[in-house]
Amino acid sequence: MSTLEMDPVFSEALREALMTTIKNTPRARHRWRWRVGTGVFFGLSLVAGGVALATGVFSPPGAPVNSPLGNIVTATRVGTATIDLGTPPATSTDLSLSLTCLTAGTFYFPNGSSLGCDTADLSQAPLYRTASEVVPLAPGVDSITITTSTNNSWTLQATYVNQVTTAWGVNAKGETYGVQNQSGTPDLIAVVIDQGTVHGYVEESELNCAAGGNVNSPAEALTWDQESQNRNISIPVYESNGTTVIGTFITGDATGSNAVTVPLSSLSLKC
Amino acid sequence: MRTVLNVSSGEDEAIVWANVLRNDGDAFVVIFDRYRDRTYRHALRMTANVHDAEDVVAGAFLELWRRRKSVRLVDGSVLPWLLVTATNLSRNLTRGLRRYRALIAALPRSEVVQSSEESVTARIEELRLAAQVHRALGRLSASDAALIMLTTYEDFSPSQVASVLGISNGAARTRLHRARSHMAEALGSLEATADIIMKESRR
To answer: Of A9, A18, A32, which has the smallest distance from its Cβ to B61's Cβ?
Structure first.
């Protein structure tokens, strides 16, 4: 039966009809979206970024440092395509990838993570519609496939890198500071606030408490969830000495008109 | 040797499907592009009629979207669910596609075009075989037909089909054995009248 293919006219019309049907369905919330701006330096990807983005970016202790090896391969394609990256240099440990959407759609990296762009995103600068990943290099891999629907256009920048994870800092009080990495979580976690203009640190214990980590019973958890619907919590942001306050970091998802932001110290929960 | 990172594994499809569940149209189109042809060939075997098979594919994907929250993934894939649904639709086109009749009727189709004598011959032969299978399957229940088709043509194990049908592995194997006997009997008696069936399938 393999000699038979579906009528292309019918198939394409059906594809369009499915897209229309889906577009008329209310969009679910919580769609994964790449964030640039306020955020905690959890894990590797926000810090490391692509090589192209990493230039000049503040790099806190404990962050992986990626040194590019060889040229950056840049390719623009439409639909699913595989980009040949050439032979990896001997000291390569990872692949640095920056994917920018040129049309609306969802674009998948090989590991299944994705970049979702809608029409509004396209009016933003490329930086704000770019997802960057640094992925471990598997033996024998010398190409990368981006998967998306037929008419979606994208640009990929890719380069082999050698990745070295730096050590956390230690302040006068003996507290470690930096980003979470394979070694675990430091006492002071690096954050950026004020649209990325201020870099500082939050106490791991305070961040954990503000996220509900000190809830001790199902009843407390229920109360916490109900209160959190309209409440965000602010915690102090310090310099690396863990003493000097330079701003506040706000956690929570409350965005409605009756949403309030309260300092962690005002809550009855003990942290 | 070249190794290419790819997204064809069940694990990755599960991630694509998770995005479908967030009403991501592009993710759904990835699924459509991946399984359209297999669903079509399956539908063609089931219906032995090109036009009906196209309707079944449309219905199967529209059902996949409508019922996305209750779809059972088998080893991370929606394909078995899709093929079982196509089987059910093929068994009762009128009732199964009622919900989508207007939409499907509005979709344009090519004029019948055959590019070469070879493709015409291939098409006739495929339809002739499909007509035989179609007639033999007519004697089975929809779930037995799905068991036969998915294990014979699509390389799924009886237990994988069983999990979509919601029956036990033991029941699937027993029913498959019985259905194969019925099929063998029916196909044997139909061979002699294949030409007549082929004409019917082309009407």
So the answer is: A18
Nearest CA in chain B to A27: B23
B-chain residues near A88 (CB < 8 A): none
A34 band by pLDDT with thresholds 50, 70 and 90? very low
A-chain residues within 8 Å CB-CB of B23? Answer: 22, 25-28
What was the pLDDT predicted at B113?
52
Provide the pLDDT confidence category of residue B175 given band limits of 50, 70 and 90. confident
Q: Is B3 helix (H, G, I), strand (E, B) or coil?
A: strand
Shortest distance between the Cα of B175 and any Cα of chain A, in A, equals 26
Per-residue pLDDT band at A3 (split at 50, 70, 90):
very low
Minimum distance, in Å, between the CA of residue A16 and any CA atom of chain B: 9
Long-range contacts of B133-137, Cβ-Cβ distance < 8 Å, separation of 24 or more: B133/B45, B133/B46, B133/B48, B133/B187, B134/B45, B134/B46, B134/B47, B134/B48, B134/B197, B134/B201, B135/B48, B135/B186, B135/B190, B135/B197, B136/B182, B136/B183, B136/B186, B136/B187, B136/B190, B137/B46, B137/B183
Mean pLDDT of A129-153: 87
Q: CB-based contact (8 Å) between B103 and chain A? A: yes
Q: For B44-80, give the DSSP string.
A: HHHHS-HHHHHHHHHHHHHHHHHTGGGPPPBTTBSHH
| CB-facing half-sphere around the CA of A253: CA atoms within 13 A | 8
Please say whether the beta carbons of A46 and A39 come within 8 A: yes
Residue of A nearest to B19 (CA): A31
The whole-model pTM stands at 0.46
How does residue B140 score in pLDDT terms, banded at 50, 70 and 90? confident
Mutate to test the interface with B, among A2, A20, A22, A115 (most CBs of B within 10 A): A22
**What's the burial of A244, exposed, middle or buried (CB within 10 Å: 0-12/13-18/19+)?**
exposed
Q: Which whole number is the average pLDDT over A13-38?
A: 60
User: What would the mean pLDDT of B103-119 be, rounded to a whole number?
Assistant: 71
Give the ipTM of the model, two decimals please. Answer: 0.76
Are A14 and B58 contacting, i.e. CB atoms less than 8 angstroms apart? yes
Question: What is the pLDDT at residue B121?
Answer: 65
Residue numbers in A near B33 (CB within 8 A): 15, 149-150
